Structure formats: C-alpha cells, structure tokens
Amino acid sequence: MRQIVFLVSLLVLLSACSTDSENNDQQASSCDRLLEVSQSKFDAASVDEFEVTSASIDGDCLSLQISYEGGCNEPTIQLIGSATVEAGSPPIRTLRIKVDTKGDSCTDLTSATLTFDLSALQLDLENRFELKIKGWNQSLIYTY
Predict the structure, then answer these.
(1) Edge-to-edge strands of the sheet including 76-81?
(2) pLDDT at 29
(3) What integer is the mean pLDDT of 1-14?
(4) Closest CA to 77 of 40, 28, 115
C-alpha cells in the first residue's frame, strides 16, 4: 500500500512541474504566426503595396500593424527572415513582409495587426540582435 501511495504522490509531483521548454512553448504560442527563415524566399519575395504603421517586440513576439488597399479578399501575409546575419554590435537580422492581396480590386484602406514568433531567428552565441524590417524605418532590438 505504501508503494502505491508513493507512486501516486510521485506522479502528482512530476505532473505539477513544468520545464523551461514547456514554458517557452507556451510563450511561443502567444504569437499569431511563425516566420520563415529562407534566403531564397527573402530575395524573391514580391509584395503588394502596404505600409507598416507600427512595430514592436514583446518577449519573443514581433507585433506589426500594417495597412494596405483591399477589403474584398483576405490577404496572405507572411514574414520572411533573411538567413544572412550582418556583422555589427549587436549582429543584424533583416525581415521582409510579404502581403498578397490576391488581386483584390477593392480600394478600401484596411489594416491588420499581427504577431510573429521571432525565436527561429535566435543566434547560438548571442542573446540579442538588431532587427531591420523592410518597409519600416526604425530598427528594433530583440533580446532573448
């Protein structure tokens, strides 16, 4: 009987504990979308016209507010990271936003606020880097 009580207590104790990786997964899930790191897609990305109206970082999430003409079709919005890391102190990573309005002929000014998980950009020997976003004139510092 003591063994059963011990095993049940041990299982309860182990299930109540969470690891850092579980906490990181929960934080990552608070971002709406994942970004893709691909040099070829970064270089080849053609985009419909849009404007970045705000950008900020909270934890591992990059929050972007963009505006674009449309309103009839739901656009596809992607964030693509360059695989290249530029030298600097801190190092520099560059992102490109791809907005595909799918030929939307409507001309209403539409806006969207999206959050992207930046953890795929983290560098092994660093704990921060400067983030440049094409279409946004200010750099951001991502610390992790």
Answers:
(1) 36-37, 76-81, 92-100, 128-133, 140-143
(2) 52
(3) 41
(4) 115
